[in-house]
Amino acid sequence: MKRLGILISGRGSNFEAIADSVAAGRIDAAIAVVISNRPEARGLAVARERGLNAVCIPSKGLDREVYDRLLAEELKRNSVDLVCLAGFMRLLSAGFIREFPLRILNIHPSLLPAFPGLDAQHQALEHGVKVGGCTVHFVDECLDSGPILVQTAVPVLNDDTVEALSARILKEEHRIYTEAINLVLAGNFRIEGRRVVFT
Predict the structure, then answer these.
(1) Which member of 108, 122, 137, 174 is catalytic?
(2) pTM score > 0.70 for this model?
(3) 1-100 with 107-199: one CATH topology?
C-alpha cells in the first residue's frame, strides 16, 4: 500500500479531507506521517486524535536547507511515497524537491497560473475576475508553477467577500485533492513539457 506524508502549518482542513477519504476507502493509501513546522498547528492535534503519526519539526530560526534536510529525513524514515502539502506555509528548497521528483503535490486556491502566492482569493476579488477556483499541481522549484493535475472553477459572486469565496473554494479543494492523489497513485500519466497527460 502506498504511503502518504502530509505537511501542514495550520488548521489542516485539506489534511482532514484527505484523512476522511483514506478512512472511507476513497484513497487506497495509508497516511504514514503528518508533519507540521509549527507546534501550535491545530492539524497536529487533529492527527493525534485520529491516531495518526504526527510530528512537529519547528522551522523557526532554521536555514531553509537545514530544515528541508530534517523534513526529507523524517519522510524517508516513514517510507513516504507521495508528499501532500496541505496548507504548508513554507517554500521548499530545490534540494528537497529533487529528493522527491514528481512526488510532491500542492493545492492552491486559484486557477493557476492566475494569482500565485499568498492571498489568492483576495487577489481574485481585487482583479474583478468572474471565475475563481482551485488547482492541484506537482511542486517544482518555482512558486505555484509545477505541472497541473486537476483544476475546478468556482464562480465569483457580485457580493462576495474573501471569506465567502474562500469557503466555496475550500469545499472544492477538499474534493479535487482526493481526485488528484488517486491520479498520481495510479501512475497513468506522463509529463510533456508543462502538461500532465493521462494515459
Answers:
(1) 108
(2) yes
(3) yes
